[in-house]
Every structure is written in structure tokens, then in C-alpha cells.
Design brief:
Two copies of one chain form a homodimer. Chain A is α+β, with helices and mostly antiparallel strands. Chain A has a domain of 115 residues: Sandwich (Jelly Rolls), CATH 2.60.120. Helices cover 52% and strands 22% of the residues of chain A. Chain A contains nine helices and eight strands. In chain A, the strands form two sheets. A four-stranded antiparallel β-sheet of chain A has the order 1-8-3-6. Chain A has a four-stranded antiparallel β-sheet with strand order 2-7-4-5. In chain A, β4 and β5 form a beta hairpin. Chain A is globular and about 55 Å long. The N and C termini of chain A lie far apart (45 Å). At the A-B interface, α3 and α5 of A face α3 and α5 of B. The first copy, chain A, binds a DNA duplex through α9.
Chain lengths: 193, 193
Amino acid sequence: MYEVFFRKFNEKIQLTEEEVTFVKQYLTPKKLRKKQYLLQEGDICRNICIVEKGALRAYILDEHGEEHITAFALEGWTMGDLSSFIKEEPAMLNIDALEDCELVLISKSAYIELLKVMPKFETYIRILMTDAYMALQKNMTNMISLSLEERYKAFIRMYPNIVQRVPQHMIASHMGLSPETLSRLRSRLNSRK
Amino acid sequence: MYEVFFRKFNEKIQLTEEEVTFVKQYLTPKKLRKKQYLLQEGDICRNICIVEKGALRAYILDEHGEEHITAFALEGWTMGDLSSFIKEEPAMLNIDALEDCELVLISKSAYIELLKVMPKFETYIRILMTDAYMALQKNMTNMISLSLEERYKAFIRMYPNIVQRVPQHMIASHMGLSPETLSRLRSRLNSRK
DNA sequence: TCAAAACATTGATATATGTCAATGTCCTGC
DNA sequence: GCAGGACATTGACATATATCAATGTTTTGA
């Protein structure tokens, strides 16, 4: 149980068997069926989740009620509305399952307790946050400095699994494009090679 | 010396006088004149910096050589190309001074050593990264879900000091707009009230 | 197994923003 | 103190992308 979670953990920080057992006490498994919600806008995000299996998306609704996908999460990725989790404020994000999912949840109290009693956990979180920040930064600089075509090609290169498993209009939404524009972009790219 | 740095630190984690003295050993002061560079694209970012006084900007050059400002930093803010600092890869960002600056630098070796020997430093960095991630996320969701006008009003509300101290065309660049478009947006807002 | 929904594509048109250019003002450094 | 540059504004025009609509295909669920 929790194989993916601990595989990811061990990539950053080695844990002994006892430590694994110890951490497991603080984790909760959760299954989610396709289209079910993990979090809805306005609720407080009570858990950080790690995807063991399946796929999630996070999206925000704009003033016209349009969905804008802010993130996908596949196996091994972390998902949640971090601001809501940390500050215990209403979430801006909606998170739902794109496929049937198996998740690992860390509650706020578990998070706080683990940070307090287990330095290796704090180190792991520090690294996780650093990596997440760098990834977001990278996305932002790509968004700013690349042409549409280059952005799409970079996305395919970076996240080939997402392109395979997620409908195209959601990728368009994630890139801030209409489905039509992405479709035309793709046909331009195909005709060119 | 390093007043701003330790004020910020103490807002998150209380330090004893001895701890302050200890941390000071790892810090280096640096002055920068307006328009001088702290970091240039292609170089490796050897230091994380905290602004004691003055203002910095970070920008990236796109394929046409156009500048796109990715961040500003005023007193108390942290600045650097984090990916370059952590991975010791060539930086994508250019960082220069918008005003004469006084900075505090933390070198990579100081960063690693402090993380190793001082749990409070690791906790501080963990919180810093978490906050930075949340702020970037917030910017991204604003970018996605708000109209231009709302984005500009949100920016003014959030960073009134930047609006006062930074030329308008740089704010346009930071918002991903041409200077003309921001100018027209502002005149629209003014005529309306 | 079939009907309905979800999805991708393509065309016609609308619109927001960028680009180019001209003008005037205000800094700023020599 | 003045000249040149940086900056903001405004107008005319170009262009990329959104929007609306129609069509065909694939997936899904009863």
C-alpha cells in the first residue's frame, strides 16, 4: 500500500522500514470514481493528496462560469489547493477525477504533526515545495517567452502521458486556448512535417 | 546590518541573539547601482538574494529578443533564479537593479550548510518556498480567470508600492501587455469614475 | 446494441490586442 | 542649463485568437 507515495519519497529522502511504518500511520487511502470531486470551490481543502493511480485535474471558474484547467496530476504527483490547505480559507480550485483514482491523503493535522516530529518529513516537504515552485516558474516563463507552437511542443515533450490520456480540449483549456485554436495549431504542425 | 532579512526571518521563526550571530556568518552584503546586473542569462545563479533596500526586476528574453518581466522585488523580498541556483544550470533569467540597492546574499554552500546544521533555517526555507509557491499560484489563477481590468486592479491592490516606483511600461511587460494597451486600459478606468 | 453525449475538425466572422507612428512631457546626465 | 533619451499617450491599421455554427466521428452508458 502507498507504493507510489513512498517510491517518490525515497527518491528524495531514504527512509528505514520503521520510518515507513511510522509515516503510514498518518496517511489515509481514498478511492475516487471518474468525475467525482476531491475538492469543490468554496470548501476548505482539508488534505493534500498524492495520486497512486488514475488522473486528476484542478480547474477554476472565471466570472463567466468558464472552466480553466490549472493543473493535471497523474501517478506520483501531488494535488490540492495549497493556499486553502495552509491558510484554511475557502478554496478557489475545483479538483475532480478524470479517471478512476486511488489516492493517498495527508490531513492538515497529520501534516503539522509530521513536520513537528520528523525532520526527514520536513526536508521532504521543503524539497517538494522547491521543486513545485521551480516547475511552476518554468511553466510561467514558457508561457511568456515561447510562441504558441513552441509552447505546445514543449508541453508534449514534458508531459507525453498527459497528452495521451487527457482529451484535447482540456489541454487547450490548460494552455489558455479555445479547443478550435489548438485543433488548428495541431493541423498546422502536422501538415508541416 | 541585515535588519530587513532578520525581520522577515523573525516573522516566521523566532531566533535568539546567538542564532542571529551564527546565521550572520553565512551572509554577504552587496550593493548594486541602478541598472547594474545581479545575474545574466547563461550564468549560473550562485546566490539567493534578499533586498534590504532598493528594487530589482527579473526578466527573460524571448526568441525575438523582447524583454518580459517575470518578477519585481522590493525591500524584504527574495530574488534569484531558483532553478539555476538549485540545479547549478545556466540561468534563463536576467536580474538587474531598478534603483540603487542593498542586498543580502546567501551562497549555495552557505545555503547547504545552514540547511544541514540548523533546523530552524530549514523550517524557514520550507515556509518561504511554500509562500512563494502560493503567491505564484495566485498570480497564475488571476492571470487565467480575471479580465484585464480586474487583473490590473488586483495588481494595484496587491502591490501598490510597485505601481508607485516602477515605470508603467514595465508593469505592462510584467502583465504580458504592450505599453499602449496598458495606457488605454488606464484611461478607460479613469474616464469611468 | 443503439441512442445520446462528448469530442475534434473546419469555415466564416468578430474582436481584442499588438504594431507602427507621431507627439508632447519629463527626467537626467554631461 | 540644456540636449538627448526615456516615457506616456493617442490614432490608424494589422493580426491572432475567440466565437459561432455545421459536420462527422468516437465514446459511453442504459
